[in-house]
Design goal:
single chain, 297 residues, Farnesyl Diphosphate Synthase, 2 domains
């Protein structure tokens, strides 16, 4: 699909554009979230940065719905269905919520695709339906594609790249980041009854259970985690190779995200898989160095 074709969006509408206060509120929400992506997003020019903040805020909204353990399933489904309706309203030019109003300009300017927003909601529905436990590799890949690679596809367009190579960056990097998150959050997810380690790898290392607590206590857990870490590293390598075919400046933010999360994966491997409650974080100075390294490219 050409850049011109991708940028064809609904005509101007009656939906009010967000004012400066709303944009500041969204930016403050992103900063307060503590995401490792915040400083990478700061590398972007103001308009692209605000677009990324709006995409991230949308992701947080639907993720919070799926992760609300106190809400009954019917309520989660209703709330996610409301966001599906809001996405339709956004693309019809009638955005009503603050976040979707903030997305109205980026959708037109950067050719953001409705299917990618809907894929993110689909991924959140996978989490909302029931606690995921030991999915197959195919289901895990679909989950990563929806909750992470779809975000990447929106992001690379905001960064300014519309090529197949940029799409490949999004597909590969999204999966790498999500697998890293899965390894980082093993204990937290298990406390909520979730286990994203794939069934095939558990079976390969003699773990028959799908109970999160039992799997995390199994002596073969480390072998499974090493295999998942290797999967993540293959995706990082794939993303890095695809970036080489993209405009360098357009990929600065993606390259920063890759460097930060790859370093987190390295810290996880260094820590090992027996002290899962011990958090893994990059020291502030190291994270700053990675951001600055790509800021000057």
């Amino acid at each position: 699909m050409t850049q011109a074709a991708e940028k064809r969006q609904p005509d101007a509408t009656t939906a009010p554009v967000p004012d400066g206060g709303e944009l500041e509120a969204i930016a403050a929400r992103v900063q307060a979230s503590g995401t490792s992506f915040y400083w990478a997003m700061r590398l972007l020019p103001a308009a692209r940065r605000n677009a990324m903040y709006a995409v991230y805020a949308f992701c947080r909204e639907v993720d919070d719905i799926a992760d609300n353990d106190d809400a009954p399933l019917a309520e989660k489904r209703r709330a996610l269905a409301e966001w599906r309706d809001e996405i339709d309203a956004l693309y019809a030019g009638r955005a009503r919520k603050m976040i979707s109003r903030a997305l109205l300009g980026p959708v037109r300017e950067y050719g953001l695709q409705r299917r990618d927003f809907l894929a993110i909601v689909d991924g959140m529905e996978m989490d909302a339906q029931e606690a995921i436990r030991a999915p197959s590799l195919a289901v895990l890949d679909l989950y990563c594609a929806r909750v992470a690679s779809a975000v990447g596809l929106l992001s690379v367009r905001i960064f300014g790249s519309y090529t197949p190579a940029a799409d490949r960056v999004a597909e590969e990097l999204g999966r790498a980041l999500q697998l890293t998150n899965i390894l980082r959050d093993l204990a937290e997810d298990a406390a909520r009854g979730r286990l994203y380690l794939p069934r095939e790898l558990l079976d390969a290392h003699g773990i028959a259970s799908s109970d999160p607590a039992a799997v995390l206590a199994h002596p073969s857990l480390a072998a499974v985690c090493r295999d998942v870490a290797a999967m993540a590293e293959r995706h990082y390598a794939g993303a890095e190779a695809a970036m080489a075919a993209c405009p360098r400046r357009a990929m600065r933010t993606a390259a920063t995200m890759l460097a930060v999360y790859r370093a987190i994966l390295g810290k996880l491997i260094e820590r090992g898989w027996t002290d899962l409650d011990r958090p893994v974080r990059l020291p502030g100075l190291r994270k700053a160095a990675l951001v600055l390294r790509h800021a000057i490219l």
